[in-house]
Specification:
Elements (H helix, E strand, L loop, with lengths): L17 E3 L4 H10 L4 E5 L6 E8 L2 E8 L2 H17 L9 E6 L2
Antiparallel strand pairs: 1-5, 2-5, 3-4
Helix pairs in contact: 1-2
C-alpha cells in the first residue's frame, strides 16, 4: 500500500461497498494514508444539505437550520487543505468527497 496520489484516485459512486470518509482534515488524512487503491472520489454534493446554527443572545439560546451554501463548501475545503498542508500531505481537489472500501 502506498500513500494516496489524489490524481490517481478513481471516480466512484456511493454503494454498500464504500463508506464516506468524514469531511474533516483528519478524515482526509486517514484516506490519504489508506492508499490510492483503497479509496475513490466523487464530487461533493451539498444539494439539500442543512447546517444546525445555535445562537445565544442575552442568555437565550436559539437553534435553527440553514441551507449549506457555496461559501460553507469553500470553508470546509479550506479547513481540510490547511490540516493536510500542516501534516505535509498533498491536498485533494476542491469539492471532492472521498469514499473508502468497506472491509
Amino acid at each position: 500500500m502506498s500513500p494516496t496520489n489524489w490524481d490517481g484516485v478513481p471516480d466512484g459512486a456511493r454503494s454498500s461497498e464504500w463508506a464516506e470518509v468524514p469531511e474533516t482534515g483528519r478524515g482526509m488524512l486517514a484516506a490519504w494514508a489508506a492508499g490510492t487503491e483503497n479509496i475513490c472520489k466523487l464530487p461533493a454534493d451539498d444539494t439539500g444539505r442543512e447546517m444546525r446554527v445555535t445562537i445565544e443572545t442575552g442568555g437565550v439560546t436559539e437553534t435553527r437550520t440553514e441551507p449549506f451554501t457555496v461559501n460553507d463548501r469553500q470553508i470546509v475545503d479550506k479547513c481540510i487543505e490547511d490540516y493536510l498542508r500542516a501534516a505535509g500531505v498533498p491536498v485533494p481537489p476542491r469539492g471532492t468527497a472521498a469514499l473508502w472500501k468497506m472491509a
